Amino acid sequence: MDLLRYSVSRFSAAHPQHPFRTPLRRRFVAVRSSFSLPFPERKAKYYRELEAAVHVVERACRLCVDVKKSFSSDGRILEKNDQTPVTIADFGVQALVSLEMNRLFPSIPLVAEEDSAFLRSNNLVGSVVDVVKDKTTLGDEVTDDSILKAIDRGGKDACVFGPKPATYWILDPIDGTRGFVRGSEALYVVGLALVVEGKIVLGVMLCPNWHEDFSDSSIIGVQENISSRSGIIMVSHVGCGTWTKRLSDILTIESPHTWTRCSVDSCQMVEGARFTIPESQTWKSLPLSGLFDAKTDSENIGEGNILLLSACCGSLCKYLMVASGRASVYIQGKKATSIIKVWDHAVGTICVHEAGGKVSDWEGSSLDFAADQTERRLIFPSGGVLVTNGSLHSKIIGMISSNLSVL
Question: Considering 87, 90, 136, 276, which one is annotated as catalytic?
Fold first, then answer.
């Protein structure tokens, strides 16, 4: 197996002027998971990395489910300085993934959403230790200090990358945190991707309360029949496709169902497409609103209308919908004051691509995950992000180009 390398400088707090480089080292530790992968190892160059990613994301979602059951009355719902809701689960997931992937692949850095400053200032480290301890393989090695270091391993300023292609993990601890804190009916996703020499090569998304069956007119994530929620795991590997498998009873028992290969939908006409957009944006704020009115009821779609699906909270859920054929298009506009984070798009991008779809900015250019040459935490798409089934991509790019004046 080829030796992977990455260009990254880790800066010591005491000696920030002395960066160093190191080759990617693998520890081939046996990874036990309740999920075997849907393709043979000989076809997947990064099989072991994907196997490890599936295992840790599965346990991270178990952590989320456990926290969710107990947070309502014990102060576990928190709020960061930027007013974004965040919970012990966010920090717990990041610590767990950081600890486990550093154990298996110690030279691959992590780019993730959180840092430990909030936990330190609010004396909440012990709460994170409690939720991580029974989910990690490290047992008694999990201490306040190790948790703080694990979280900060993925935080801002943990690594400084050079302009050359790099190798690193990208983690979204909980995409859709607002959904997580709303209650059991709202969707949220744990997502992990691996970038190797500047290219996303694998991804894992897991949504514990994904609703398996819904109609076009339903609002995804707000059904009352919680018992029908099977949950879903989605995995993708470059050249091997995107696959899903149902979970059973919110991760308590392994699902007897087999893997299903994902394909984007076959919609060829924009008018017949199923769209999804961010909760923070309105259809009227997007350029296609000058051509089509959005309707949420599939029975009332007429000429000049498109069907707009709702999907509670977060970007990755929308990627999951497009990759699985539930939606045809996900379009996200870029506001002047917004900053687009890599973890909101990385794992979704490979899942959609390997399912036959396409992801780009509004000009049709691929998302540049190395645009932030220093920390690899930001992307700067022109106009916004467009995710489609591929067949509709060029048509919608043309429509956007001719209707930007309505924004």
Answer: 90
